[in-house]
Amino acid sequence: VQLQASGGGLVQAGGSLRLSCAASGLIFSTYVMGWFRQTPGKEREFVAAVTRNGISTYYADSVKGRFTISRDNAKNTVYLQMNSLQPEDTANYYCASFMSPWISNRANDYAYWGQGTQVTVSS
After folding, report:
1. Mapped to the 3 state alphabet, what secondary structure does 30-67 carry?
2. Residues 45-80: pLDDT tens digits?
3. Which residues of the chain have a pLDDT value below 50?
4. How big is the CA angle at 20 (ends 13 and 92), to the nearest 5 degrees?
5. Residues 6+ apart with CB under 8 A from 74
6. Neighbouring C-beta atoms of residue 71, cutoff 10 Å
7. Is 116 left (phi over 0), alpha (psi -120 to 50) or beta?
């Protein structure tokens, strides 16, 4: 299984970015997909997750109303649209997956992880 995240970069506060995560080596539609983020010296933090069929989503309170997770099962890709970015959103963002009918915000539930893409928000 491979998860390839992309789309990170440098953006000013208030700006937007769209992250993508392309999956291979798995039956994508059977996996819950999630996004996590991490800054140096801190634990990995849940950001958002989406169920296998894309109908249900779950967000951390810190990003609710600003970030949107979605997926395209035909393209084996999950997205994270990030709007109204703030300096505290600066982190390395990881996509992750696990096979389950249930959504989860716990990193330990996720079996596969991508390599991360850096998002830096300047003030």
Report:
1. HEEEEEEEECCCCCCEEEEEECCCCCCEEECCCCCCCE
2. 999 999 999 999 999 999 999 999 999 999 999 999
3. none
4. 55
5. none
6. 23
7. left
